[in-house]
Amino acid sequence: MVLTAGGLGARAEARCRELSRPPYSEDANALTRTYLTPPHRAAMDRIAEWMRAAGLSVREDEAATLIGRLEGAQAGPALVIGSHIDSVRDAGCYDGPLGVMLGLACVEALAASGKRLPFAIEVVAFGDEEGSRFQASMNASRAFSRRLSEVKLDVRDRDGITLTDALTMFGKDPNKFGAAAREAGSVLAFIEPHIEQGPVLEAAGAALGIVTSIAGQWRLKVRFIGRAGHAGTTPMRLRNDALAAAAEAMLAAERIATKNPAGLVATVGQVTVKPGAPNVIPGFAEITFDVRAGTDNVRDQGLQQVEAEIAEIAVRRGVGAEIDRVQNLPAARMDTQLQSLLKRAAKQTGHAAPELMSGAGHDAMMIADFAPTAMLFIRCAGGVSHNPAESVRSEDCEAALGVMLAFIDLLAAEHAS
Asked: What is the rounded CA–CA span in Å between residue 104 and residue 192?
């Protein structure tokens, strides 16, 4: 039986749920799928099966990005649709994979209709958007968009495995990582469908939204080096407590962001303490900072304030402080012409699709300087994401597929010979 476009939209949502269980997760009771792990391989293999069944030729690049391609009637650059298939730890199942599954659904709907586009269409599944394993994120989409100088192959995961070693174990040649870079002019447009990961669309009663820009972010790793000591015999005034300094820095970042009127946000997501005993004053504490804003000016000013506070706290508390700027993601604007086409497609299919900024980072921000790029947001329940409670409606996935197909029709009309 040939599925309708509507049935394909629902199936895209169901496929995300299928990929949330072992062997596609490192955890039997929660979804965790990090870059270059056996669950990542299992997910790639399953998606490759779906791609081949849809009539796509399938390949993997040297950054472990899965690429399915359907040739068009004319030679030239391809329309690329996709997102990422890695996850944070204890994740929801739609953040990333839904964009890949909706891209695949577009190809399946086109095949069912017998349409052949004037350009090729590709569905891509990046493997490293979250940065959950190697800290720095989006290495695969950086490679795709020729930003190879930003990829550090010597970074290590929690087990001390380098990215070079992980690529080798995954069957890739690290010396050929640069081969993942796309040729200039090979991408006609890149579209990333993605859940909103926020509450704006739900509050507006809208199933879909069109992204205008993606917030810039800094990611820091900060180490406080104090002096371990006995918890019972060291007076408070004589302590050099690394964790207390880290805690004060966390609250300082929260205060700086809260008082900023321009939408600055700051988050501490990881804390490591040594020696980590209940009766020992911590001599070492390492924490991460994630600092974001809709404009680079606000983001950079916020970073400067946070780093200044860290330095002042360290001096006052008699501890050392080392700051590593692990990642710099400048804000990215989406292509205005593609936004206009998405608006027209939404209107044709009966959706208002308000414009909004993305506070979350996405592979699209890596590609925006390389090729015309757009994002279509899909409503998620309660705005919850990076959480097992992450949820979308099947009917919203149907709506997204309808808009994407209308968008493809409009783009094809512009490029018809």
From this structure: 12
Note whether 367 and 244 are within 8 A (CB): no
How many CB atoms lie under 10 A from the CB of residue 382? 12
Enumerate helices (H) and strands (E) in the chain, giving the number of each. Answer: 11, 16
What is the secondary structure of 288-308 as a DSSP string?
EEEEEESSHHHHHHHHHHHHH
Bridge-based pairing of strands 332-333 and 208-214 is antiparallel
For residues 33 and 25, is the Cβ–Cβ distance under 8 A?
A: yes
* R_g over Cα of the chain: 23
Q: Which residue has the tokens 């569905």?
A: 123
Tokens 């447009």 belong to residue: 189
The burial class, CB within 10 Å (0-12 / 13-18 / 19+), for 348 is: middle
**Of 8, 257, 210, 209, nearest to 109 (Cα)?**
8
Give pTM, 2 decimals.
0.86
What are 126-169's pLDDT values in tens digits? 999 998 998 778 999 999 999 999 898 999 998 999 999 999 99
Kindly list the domain boundaries of the chain, sorted by start residue: 5-214+331-415, 216-329
CA 62/CA 128 separation, integer angstroms: 13
Characterize the bridge pairing of strands 66-70 and 78-84: unpaired
Tens of pLDDT along 115-127? Answer: 889 999 999 999 9
* Residue 107 to residue 234: CA distance in whole angstroms: 67
Fold classification of 216-329 (topology level)? Alpha-Beta Plaits (3.30.70)
Q: Which residue in the block uniquely carries the two structure tokens 């690429």? A: 67
Distance CA 330, CA 319 (A): 31
Beta carbons within 10 angstroms of residue 233's beta carbon: 8
Instruction: For the chain, give percent helix, strand, coil, nearest 5.
Output: 40, 25, 40
Cα distance between residue 186 and residue 175, in whole Å: 23
Q: Which CATH architecture has domain 5-214+331-415?
A: 3-Layer(aba) Sandwich (3.40)
Q: What is the DSSP string of 120-138?
A: -EEEEEES-SS-TTTSS--
Q: Which two tokens stand for residue 270?
A: 């990881």
